[in-house]
Design goal:
Blueprint lengths: L3 E6 L4 E6 L6 H12 L8 E4 L2 E8 L4 E8 L7 H15 L1 H5 L12 H20 L7 H7 L3 H4 L6 H7 L19 H21 L12 H5 L15 H4 L35 H10 L7 H7 L27 H17 L4 H15 L7 H20 L7 H10 L4 E6 L6 H14 L4 E6 L6 H15 L11 E4 L7 H14 L4 E6 L7 H14 L3 E7 L4 H16 L11 E5 L9 H10 L3 E5 L7 E2 L3 H8 L2
Parallel strand pairs: 6-9, 6-10, 7-8, 7-9, 10-11, 11-12
Antiparallel strand pairs: 1-2, 1-5, 3-4, 4-5, 12-13
Bound molecules: guanosine-5'-diphosphate.
The site of guanosine-5'-diphosphate (GDP) has 24 residues, from helix 9 and helix 17.
Length: 630
């Protein structure tokens, strides 16, 4: 009898949904949001749209909206009670998860049973009410019938704040297709970004502890607005996906830069930092049975006698110390734990198996007298295996290739692609800074012609970069220029014009920024394949965020596949390398980095480690091993 019941966050993420018919509900729900909830219109808690009546309840504490929709012609006396009961039950069941705030989208909301129970109870209650003699309404009852949206909001702070917090974005039809645990991938990405925002703001508070973070908590301010993308190539044409008329998003002026950066990025990109061998040896010498993780060590600097004992991965092998010649059977329990440990760090399970196997082979038949011997053997074995996995099939030496291209009087062209919001433009700007530091002048081609604000964001970076490296320091030559043609135009065409202009104007490098797109979005993936086919860049870089773990692996695999499928070339140009961003936010969950290279064989060319121009590093197996061993 009910057509729709949906529970969504004020950020527009649908947590749970029941859909009774195949009717399109998004227009009605969005109309409700726009005309009633956003405006806090007073009046009834029901709203009519087309042939539907929508009734809703807001939960301001957890920032949730509960909406039920049914045919207008129906008179359902239990809806008020039903909404309240569902609201209470949902809050009760998921209060812990909901308190977690941003993590709530990761939760599988299996709410169908409760929903059905409450519905049948409410229907029975309504039947019973109908058979009871009518009583006169109390004053309270009559007030209740006049309740307003404002009165339904369970206010925590004052009214103004509550008003501000009612910011609900449009909801797309597709999201109502998910019942129970179908959290779509984009939701997860959005939530991860909000997690990042939280982290970054915490870091800001911790400024003393981590002086490297120069930037403001960018995502709070600059984070993309939650958006629900079409999953699956559902045949939407490009114009209908155009977002260039949206209100421009902030042009990321939060990206700080200062003169101290100048000259720090000369030469090849530095490796991710790990503790020095000396420190490591000192530690090994000072500890018989424990290895102190890098981070801990850094934070221990300056404390007295700072040896802190922590449980490291090596303790898994403690029980094997002093055993006779080790056999596979002896090792199995430890190997199982090691595998679980690695999987816990986001390492794909077949890679975890492979790593465990190499450890088993190394230890087989050995007598390991001390914990040190076992720890160093395990460490060495895993390092060797990871070096093998992470060693690219082919070398990518951008500086050398740029110089080679320059010798033949042509610019070296790099294209950046990836999902929206992963850090394409930001890391493009960091790479640009690195190139300028190495005396190469750069043309940035603004080919994200979809997202409002994308061009402005690049313009801001161009201004900052030229301020750091002004023409007077480079023989009067402007080191970075932006080639832009605004929005709504064909990105492949703009890239082509930019490359022509770049060649005529003797730029050394051209960096082509492209619009973010979901890996399953066929029209946009076709457009990217076209851009690459017609422009034949020297390097196609996939930008993925470490933050989303193995989702980034899925994106990469699908981008690769789509470029191959839609290229209409017998030898399509697929991804040449990976830029793994937001590495600073993942603590030790480095598994996705390993999987990306392992699965595609493509090298991780750059690792983004923060929000300044100098937060660009190269990945080395040693750093990855360190993170894995914590
Ligand atoms: P795009 O849509 O892919 O071009 O994404 P943006 O370049 O606009 O970046 C989205 C957000 O991620 C911005 O707030 C950036 O400052 C932030 N960001 C990009 N790279 C990194 C990184 O390596 N670490 C951190 N912490 N944030 C990053």
């Amino acid at each position: 009898m009910l057509d729709l019941f949906t529970i969504f966050t004020k950020g527009g993420i649908v947590l749970w949904c029941f859909r009774g018919t195949n009717e399109l509900f998004a227009p009605s729900v969005n109309a409700l949001i726009r005309s009633v909830i956003l405006q806090e219109r007073t009046g009834s808690s029901t709203f009519d749209h087309n042939n539907l009546t929508l009734q809703y309840k807001l939960d301001n504490e957890f920032e949730l909206v509960f909406v039920v929709a049914y045919q207008k012609i129906l008179q359902l006396s239990y809806i008020d009670k039903f909404l309240s009961d569902v609201h209470l039950e949902f809050r009760d069941k998921y209060k812990n998860e909901l308190t977690g705030g941003v993590t709530r989208s990761f939760v599988n909301y299996n709410f169908s049973n409760e929903y059905n129970n409450i519905l049948s109870q409410s229907e029975q209650w309504a039947k019973l009410q109908a058979t009871m003699p009518k009583k006169m309404r109390s004053f309270n009852d009559s007030m209740k019938s006049k309740k307003t949206v404002a009165s339904m909001i369970e206010r925590k702070g004052d009214e103004k704040d509550a008003k501000k917090s009612v910011k609900i974005v449009d909801i797309k039809e597709e999201v109502f297709d998910k019942e129970d645990d179908q959290n779509d991938k984009e939701d997860q990405i959005l939530v991860n970004r909000r997690k990042l925002a939280e982290k970054m703001s915490k870091k800001k508070g911790d400024a003393k502890k981590s002086p490297k973070v120069l930037a403001q908590p960018a995502v709070d301010k600059a984070g993309k607005k939650p958006r629900v993308w079409e999953l699956g190539g559902n045949g939407k044409d490009l114009p209908s996906l155009d977002r260039s008329k949206d209100k421009p998003e902030d042009a990321r002026s939060d990206f700080r830069y200062d003169d101290e950066m100048i000259g720090t990025m000369k030469g090849v990109i530095q490796d991710l930092e790990v503790e020095s061998e000396e420190e490591e040896e000192e530690d090994n010498a000072s500890s018989d049975d424990e290895i102190v993780p890098v981070k801990q060590k850094q934070s221990n600097v300056g404390t007295t006698n700072s040896k802190q004992k922590t449980g490291s991965m090596f303790s898994i092998f403690k029980s094997l110390v002093g055993s006779k010649n080790l056999s596979r059977d002896d090792m199995q329990p430890a190997l199982d734990k090691l595998r679980d440990h690695l999987i816990g760090k986001n390492v794909a399970s077949d890679i975890a198996h492979k790593l465990c196997d190499s450890v088993a082979t190394k230890l087989d038949g050995k007598v390991l007298g001390t914990f040190d011997t076992i720890a160093s053997t395990v460490k060495m074995t895993i390092t060797e295996a990871l070096v093998q996995i992470l060693s690219p099939k082919r070398r990518v030496d951008i500086l050398r290739d740029c110089i080679e291209a320059k010798k033949t009087n042509r610019p070296y062209v790099m294209t950046f692609c990836g999902v929206n919001g992963v850090g394409k433009s930001t890391n493009l700007a960091k790479i640009c800074f690195w190139l300028i530091e190495n005396n190469l002048n750069v043309l940035i081609a603004a080919c994200d012609t979809f997202r409002a604000g994308a061009v402005e964001q690049l313009r801001t970076h161009t201004r900052h970069l030229n301020a750091l490296h002004p023409p007077q320091k480079h023989g009067g030559r402007t080191m970075v220029e932006l080639y832009e043609k605004g929005y709504g135009k064909d990105a492949a065409g703009i890239a082509m014009e930019a490359i022509r202009y770049g060649k005529d104007s003797q730029f050394d490098v051209i960096l082509v920024d492209t619009a973010g797109r979901m890996q399953d979005n066929e029209p946009l993936m076709r457009a990217l394949a076209k851009l690459i086919k017609v422009n034949q860049p020297d390097l196609v870089l996939f930008v993925g965020e470490a933050l989303v773990g193995n989702e980034a692996v899925d994106q990469l695999v699908k981008f690769n596949q789509a470029l191959a499928d839609y290229s209409s070339d017998s030898n399509p140009h697929i991804i040449d390398g990976i830029v793994l961003t937001k590495f600073d936010t993942i603590d030790d969950k480095v598994g996705a980095a390993i999987s990306m290279t392992y699965i595609t064989g493509q090298p991780i060319v750059f690792v983004g480690t923060g929000q300044t121009y100098t937060d660009l590093k190269a990945l080395n197996a040693k750093a990855v091993v360190h993170a894995l061993m914590k």
